[in-house]
Amino acid sequence: MEFLVKNVKVYARDPYSNRIYQYLVEGQLKSGLQIELFDFKRFNLKDYQDQRIKVLVFAMVEIVTISSEFKRIKGEFIKDCPDDIAREWLRYKPNLILKHYSALKTQDGVFLIDRLNPYYFTIDYDDNLIVDIVRFDLFAWHPIE
């Protein structure tokens, strides 16, 4: 999915060594939705501020509402990560394993999500689903070619 990088800041660092553990990337999807990506892999996208990039994003679904800080997104629930998404990202990150993820296909693209536990949800695969997302994690990225 396309993502416009607006701002990159240090989110967590070691107070003694000053080593950076995680960045927070603020930006916008094609639909205009503003989201923050947690860059726990430390890609450090500062050089891409004000540019569009392709991102693979894991969306953490809120099961029990514990916070009012969430983004609500709607999309088609897909049991397995789509093959075309897996093929695209394996070209850039050959060691990426996506077979353990489900997906939510939205107007902006595909978000990876954990396989949903039927204890919490009673849905049929390929149903439209509205979920609350409490966190977006940046799994991979590449420049737009």
Structure, explained:
It is a single chain. By secondary structure, this protein is mainly beta. It has one domain. The chain is 7% helix and 50% strand. The protein is built from 1 helix and 8 strands. Strand 2 and strand 3 form a beta hairpin. The protein is globular and about 45 Å long. The mean pLDDT is 84.
Main attributes of the structure:
single chain; 145 residues; mainly beta; 1 helix; 7% helix; 50% strand; globular
Query: Which secondary-structure class do the elements indicate?
Result: mainly beta
Low-confidence stretches: none
Overall spatial form:
globular
Q: How far apart, in Å, are the first and last alpha carbons?
A: 13 Å
Largest sheet: 8 strands, mixed
Indicate the percent of residues in helices. Answer: under 10%
In N-to-C order, the SSE pattern is: EEEEEHEEE
Please give the count of helices. Answer: 1
Number of strands: 8
